[in-house]
Amino acid sequence: MSGPATTAGGAGAAAEYRPRLRESLLVGDPVLHGARTVHLVKDPDSGRSFELGVKEHFLVSRMDGTRTLQELGADYAAAYGKRLGDGHWGSLLSTLGSRGLLDGSPAPAPAEEQPERTNGLLSGSVRMVADAPRTAARLHAAVRPLLSRPAVVVLLLASLAPVAAVAARFADVAAGTARTFTEPAMLFALVALVWLSTALHELAHGVTAHHAGGRVGEIGLRWRLPVVIMYCTVEDFAHLPSTGRRVAVAVAGAVVNLLFLLPFLALWLLAPLDGLTADLLAALLLIGVVQALMMLLPIPPLDGYKIVEQWTHTAQLAASARTWMMLRVRRDPAATAYPARARRVYGGYVALVFASLAVLATGGGLLVHALLTAT
To answer: How far is CA 145 from its chain centroid?
Structure first.
């Protein structure tokens, strides 16, 4: 690590050392992880990620090369009423330096390489484009006028139309869906349209992430036979500039699923159609709305879970809530040691999940009943 051998508690040059964090580091907002509040940090050069506690972040966020260790120590003492000793400074600077996070420190060691893909007949994945960031940029350029705030408001309102139509004419769409399931050719067309909607869902995440300042890592196909789906990975999602942008990236897929249905809804409502085509469109509307709404459930790995994580400013919410709930069920004193906010968030999330599962079971039962009794 570049810098003096002694620390702020020492003499001379040590106290005047001005540490500077590497500018490429991505430091996230404070999030609740278990009982602690932490900042998620990622080094894009090495691919490594780690957490910083609130106090460590207080110091690290001020390491911009303008403050000496002595000044940093004074700021810390003013904020927390306690000065750091040589041992604390040495540990912090040694950790930052060994990870290559300070200007002038050795290059960071790369993260462990991911194992090579082992694609088989039953499962695997393959990249569809060689340069995913460039592809996302091109798609973004094509639809950028639709991403202005006025346009987004209009699109969000328009996306509610298929939901309203399916709710208003549920008996009709259920009957059409049941008849479509008995027609192999129409069923094949339905699967193809739903697959296209799923592909657009994934691309919507990537385009919105690019618009929000993020980076698309990969666009490809993944199969777990008999299911074959398209995927689009968004790197640095947790480090996008604001909660609103992260929520926008997460919700974009479901919104595009619903917008995809609009021309088919117009045809179903307004065009003179034969019976088979009308039934196919009814089935597409019903399944498309169900698909979009299910993606918004607050259960990992669905988009709704990511939205709840961002709104609650949490990391690994489901795992943290499960751990807290198990402690509480066992009446472990550690459960009461969680801060009040953590108890509210985890308790609220557990209640939300049970409520969502109840709605899902009820809705699923009603849907199956409607399909079996449709005429």
So the answer is: 24
Q: Give the chain's residues under pLDDT 70.
A: 1-14, 107-117, 375
Gap between the Cα atoms of 290 and 277, Å rounded: 20
Question: Distance (Å, rounded) from C-alpha 374 to C-alpha 175?
Answer: 5
Among 263, 296, 329, residue at a domain's last position: 296
CA angle 32, 36, 41 (to 5 degrees): 65
Comparing CA positions, the residue from 15, 103, 8, 4 lying closest to residue 63 is: 103
| 8 occurs within a structural domain | no
Strand 36-43 versus strand 26-33 pairing type: antiparallel
Residue numbers of the domain that contains 228: 123-296
pTM, whole model, 2 decimals? 0.89
295 touches 288 (CB < 8 A): no
What tens digit of pLDDT does each residue of 128-158 get?
999 999 999 999 999 999 999 999 999 999 9
Determine whether 209 is exposed, middle or buried from the number of CB atoms within 10 Å of its CB (0-12, 13-18, 19+).
Answer: buried
CA 314 to chain centre: 12
Query: Bridge partners of 48?
Result: 43
Ramachandran class of 233: left when φ > 0, alpha when ψ lies in -120 to 50, beta otherwise: beta
Scanning the chain, the segments in alpha helix (DSSP H) are 13-16, 54-60, 69-80, 86-98, 132-143, 149-168, 170-180, 184-211, 243-260, 262-270, 275-295, 303-312, 317-329, 333-336, 340-373
Q: How many domains does the chain have?
A: 3
Same domain, 74 and 128: no
pLDDT for the residue 198: 96
Alpha-carbon distance of 182 to 190, in angstroms, equals 12
88 lies in the same domain as 156:
no
CB atoms near residue 175 (< 10 Å): 19
